[in-house]
Input
Amino acid sequence: MDAKPDTIKVSASHKEEIPANRAELFVTVKGSSLVSGDQALKKAREVSQLVEALISFGLSPEAIQLQGVHIEASSGALLKSSSATYRLKVECEKLDQLAELLDIISSQKNATLERIAWRYNEEEVRERGLLIALEKAKGKADKVARSLGVKILGVYDLIESQFDDEAPFPQFAAQATPKRAMGITSEPSLGMDIQHIKTVTVNVEIWYRVSGF
Output
């Protein structure tokens, strides 16, 4: 069995913030009738009203997808007259349109925005972060080796890990205002995150082979 060579271990990391460049809006629409399949986008009245408003704004039909239908039938029989809840995904490729899309959705009486999923162009950032972390680790290893009076011979082992730090943000939050605390009635404050940033962290742990201590 080969003996483990003399090694030194160093770790390094790099963090970088990435702004979201697009978003997916998940919307539920309460309908008064049941229509199955993609025909619901055209034939379920409450759904088609929202779809038409979004397309009139400028979204392509392909940006609006039906993801599911939940049937609400009190009698147990599934009829076309049964009410249903339709789950839609609306793709927002340009974040400067997000506020207007939210306004369109909120103007539909039967539509509710459930959540926003933020999307990023992050592959380049992750690759760059790995290279920067490797350079940091190499610099640290050189300093350690010099201080110990040894030479770096190569890499014995390397472990890379990445993780994202994306703090959750409430979609809508009614908050008490100083006026309300004083007994003065005011409109609820609706908080909505229309820009989003997450932090990507790349960590490396490297065992460098060195000449004998």
In short: The CA atoms of residues 23 and 137 lie 35 Å apart.
